[in-house]
Amino acid sequence: MSQSHRAPAPASASASRPRGPAPGQPGAVGPGFVEFVALIALLMGMTAFSIDNLLPAFGAIRADFALENANHVQVMVYAYLIGIGGAQFFYGPISDVLGRRPILFAGLAVYALGSLIALFTRDFNVLIVARLIQGMGAAAGRVLAIAIVRDRFEGRDMARIMSLSMMVFLTVPIIAPALGSLILVFGSWHLIFVAMLLLALALFAWFGLRMPETLHPEYRIPFSMRSIGKAAMLTLTTRRSVGYAVAIGLMMGSLMAYVGSASQVFQTDVYRLGNLFPIAFAAVAGIMAVASFLNASLVHRLGMRRLSHAGILGFIAAGGLMVASSVIWDGKPPLVLFCGLVAAGQFLFALTVPNFNSMAMEPLGAVAGTASSFIGGFTTLLAAVLGFVVGSNFDGTVLPLALGYLVLGAIALLFVLWAEKGKLFGHQP
């Protein structure tokens, strides 16, 4: 897309520190830098928390509902992701009209409703619907966290904030499976949904008390299909945004395949770690947190393209090694080797996807809510579909997962090349 089509950013958007309360919020007390990052991270982390703390309960849920095929339990993950992906298309445009705060509160209420339904159902199909509703509510946090960051930051500053937020919220997968296992010691899997409900209430209170409206009046879109359509069209016709969005969806597909099949790989079928499963899962998630910290530290010096383009090339190499080791050891490579290769892939994932997201959003500051919706919705739906395809082919070995990493990473690289017109490691904005 030519420069003439880029949405202009406000003059103050280049500031390297958070702005104060948005115009129209006189006297509002906004969070400081650390609190801002923590709140954004928790909004983003709600998605991971609502997936990962449920993983240790897969066996109990399968037994409770008498499911014959263990792969069917994975549908709880993908239904949740479909809810997130589908609802994201609506939250962003509406937040560009009404503001970020009321839309987030509505989303948290929907998430709480889904948690309550899941808590009391005795039917697995209803549980899947409850997970879909939960996802539809959680989508508000996914969209608005990014839109709020874009309201207050741009460029490398935005990438730094996103990486710091990613680092904080990646501690969720480290502790969530262990927390889920701990909850199961004291009661049934229903208590895990109680924890999700308490999370929604905590976010409602924290955000309501501490975060003022961040949408600036000059970017507020009048409620009309024409104006929303123009914002959507700008998002869909910006070459860099589209290319990086597809690449994000492809790489997230490999991550969702890993999350969906992790219980079967580590806990039950391949390595049979049993109650040690949360330790293996946490070790991989911890590597991602370290990578996000490094990304936040290095992005100002090296730039988003150098880090992310090197990251995706390394991700593909890690996928190739996973496939090779899977073939050599008949689909069951040594646990330490497999964990090391998965951790390497996730490390490189964390150096890549946050920067891809920032580069996709960079030209779209004037329509940040709509852009975040369309990019987030598309990438999440794509990741859910691809994760389901890879995860549903689980055959008692890690080969399908390894092939997913390699193939999806390679296709993502092609879209990055398209977005950058064939050039990697280009000039940094």
Automatic annotation (TrEMBL):
Gene Ontology CC annotation, any one: plasma membrane
Region annotation Disordered: where it falls in the sequence: 1-26
Principal place of residence: membrane
InterPro entries on file: Efflux_drug-R_Bcr/CmlA, MFS, MFS_dom, MFS_trans_sf
UniProt-recorded Gene Ontology molecular function terms: xenobiotic transmembrane transporter activity
Keyword field: Cell inner membrane, Cell membrane, Membrane, Transmembrane, Transmembrane helix, Transport
Transmembrane segments: 33-51, 71-91, 103-120, 126-149, 161-183, 189-209, 242-259, 279-298, 310-329, 335-353, 365-391, 397-419
GO biological process, one term: xenobiotic detoxification by transmembrane export across the plasma membrane
Low complexity bias spans: 1-19
PROSITE patterns xrefs: MFS
Pfam family, one: MFS_1
Subcellular location as annotated: Cell inner membrane; Cell membrane
Residues annotated as domain Major facilitator superfamily (MFS) profile: 33-421
SUPFAM superfamilies: MFS general substrate transporter
Membrane topology note: Multi-pass membrane protein
Cited NCBIfam families: efflux_Bcr_CflA (TIGR00710)
Similarity-based family: Belongs to the major facilitator superfamily. Bcr/CmlA family.
Protein known as: Bcr/CflA family efflux transporter
Taxon lineage: Bacteria, Pseudomonadati, Pseudomonadota, Alphaproteobacteria, Hyphomicrobiales
